[in-house]
Design goal:
The complex is a heterodimer of chains A (312) and B (142).
Chain A lengths: L2 H9 L4 H22 L9 H12 L10 H27 L8 H22 L3 H31 L6 H11 L6 H17 L11 H4 L9 H26 L7 H23 L6 H24 L3
Chain B lengths: L2 H8 L1 E7 L5 H10 L10 E3 L8 E5 L7 H10 L5 E5 H6 L13 H4 L4 E3 L6 H16 L4
Parallel strand pairs in B: 1-2, 1-3, 3-4, 4-5
The chains are: A mainly alpha (312), B alpha/beta (142).
Chain lengths: 312, 142
């Protein structure tokens, strides 16, 4: 494997170009389903591509007075790099399970925090009050969802004989059935759906950007290219988190025709569950979100772990 | 019509500025987003921050205290950006033309690209005005 090969993986195929365009398509599915739920027509399929192209190529980029320039402009790039690295690892592991290393799941857990942390630092450095408010909410939300998220990850790890390699979790599921087929797997999957909802900032847990309340929070001072890059990084995360759930609970992406159809159906199922939760719930307050994640959701995840320990 | 105009006119993020309006025009903005008119199918969404916006929608009679704020918001809008004057007050101060409190009409404070008269304008008039603005950006003869 030459370094050119790695650059290709990172920038073109499973990495940036592929997952960003897929992410924009998934963003369109989100907007279209939302529109249909509200009995509207909704935007055409290329809408998100046009939005991002407009921001990246044709709009002015403004830097607020008193902002820390390097931080303010650099953090969107850090966010996009983190998200792209997650997508590269998660997608590449599907056709080369042996390419992983011991502990790649833990590396993924850390990398998945980078977009949120970068957004926070960028928002704090802009010097805007509403941005700081949104960033502090984002931080609290992160503290809230990381606990049940890691508890939920423990179930696939325990099922695969305490292995923290994605490749071995895939191999275990290839031999003895998908993890979603067990009781502990179902509990862990439910917890994971809620955590992914919060990670993506979808509606019941969108108090960080809360457009009507604090004018899109951490994003408020971003414009032009920087906003476009942040949107791309969000699109990459939106595309890749359901794929990670397919790896952890449904046995990974299959490449034979029938298996690929199954995978596509599972993917659409997860996305539609996320969008329907988004459309049928009001925004909760940040304290309610923390109580929810540390209380019932963490308890559910703990029950899942106990069940997995006894082999259910 | 080049690629730039095509892209700019297919994705319009609108920021709503209310400078002392009676709330009637503001309700008509919500009407445009409802299933009957649904302007999101044309790529138009309302955004919360003026720095994400391509168009400013100004309602109200732009009274004295609002003038510096309107100027500041216009400067903060990333260019290319457009201004739409909405309703009788936004176009010409309407009923409040001779009031002590409204010194200038909107188009003497900032450059205005489209006027939508009416008290309040109907959603059809709004969509018509947006279509004309799109044609103007694309360089067609009106």
């Amino acid at each position: 494997m030459s370094s050119l090969h790695y650059i290709f993986l990172f920038l073109i195929f499973p990495g940036f170009l592929f997952s960003a365009s897929m992410g924009l398509v998934v963003g369109w599915i989100d907007r279209k389903v939302t529109a249909r739920v509200q009995w509207r027509v909704g935007p055409p399929w290329y809408q998100n591509f046009v939005d991002v192209a407009k921001l990246l190529f044709y709009k002015e980029t403004l830097i607020p007075d008193g902002a820390s320039k390097a931080m303010f402009l650099g953090m969107p790039l850090v966010s996009l790099a983190g998200a792209t690295l997650v997508s590269t690892i998660v997608l590449y592991i599907n056709w080369a399970p042996q390419a992983g290393f011991i502990g790649d799941l833990i590396v993924l857990v850390y990398l998945m925090m980078i977009p949120a942390i970068a957004l926070m630092i960028g928002a704090f450095s802009s010097g805007n009050t509403l941005a700081s408010l949104g960033a502090s909410r984002e931080m609290k939300l992160m503290l809230a969802y990381e606990l049940p998220f890691i508890l939920a990850l423990a179930v696939p790890i325990m099922k695969a004989n305490f292995s923290i390699r994605l490749g071995e979790i895939l191999a275990y599921q290839a031999n003895s059935g998908a993890i979603i087929g067990s009781f502990s797997g179902i509990l862990s999957f439910i917890v994971m759906i809620l955590c992914v909802q919060a990670k993506l900032g979808f509606v019941p847990f969108d108090m960080a950007e809360a457009e009507t309340e604090i004018a899109s929070g951490p994003f408020i001072e971003y414009s032009g290219k920087t906003l476009g890059i942040l949107k791309l990084s969000k699109a990459v995360m939106t595309f890749v988190l359901p794929v990670l759930m397919i790896i952890l609970y449904f046995g990974g992406v299959k490449f034979d025709p029938r298996g690929f159809l199954n995978t596509a159906l599972q993917y659409v199922l997860i996305v539609v569950i996320l969008v329907v939760i988004k459309n049928t719930n009001p925004r909760v307050r940040i304290d309610q979100a923390i109580r929810f994640f540390w209380g019932p959701v963490a308890a559910l995840a703990a029950i899942g772990i106990v069940l997995a320990y006894f082999g259910y | 019509m080049g690629l730039k105009e095509n892209i700019l006119t297919r994705s319009i993020n609108v920021f709503h500025v209310s400078s002392g309006s009676c709330n009637n025009c503001d309700i008509e903005i919500i009407d445009c987003l409802t299933p009957r008119y649904d302007i999101e199918r044309l790529g138009i969404v309302i955004v919360g921050s003026v720095k994400h916006a391509d168009a400013m929608l100004c309602t109200g009679s732009s009274n004295r205290l609002c003038v510096p704020r309107i100027k500041k918001l216009y400067d903060e809008m990333p260019k290319p950006g457009f201004v739409i004057a909405w309703g009788a007050c936004g176009c010409s101060r309407g009923l409040f033309k001779d009031s002590y409190n409204t010194g200038l009409p909107l188009d003497e404070i900032i450059p205005v690209d489209a006027y939508i008269p009416g008290c309040p304008p109907r959603p059809e008039a709004v969509i018509g005005a947006l279509a004309k603005l799109v044609d103007k950006v694309r360089g067609k003869k009106l």
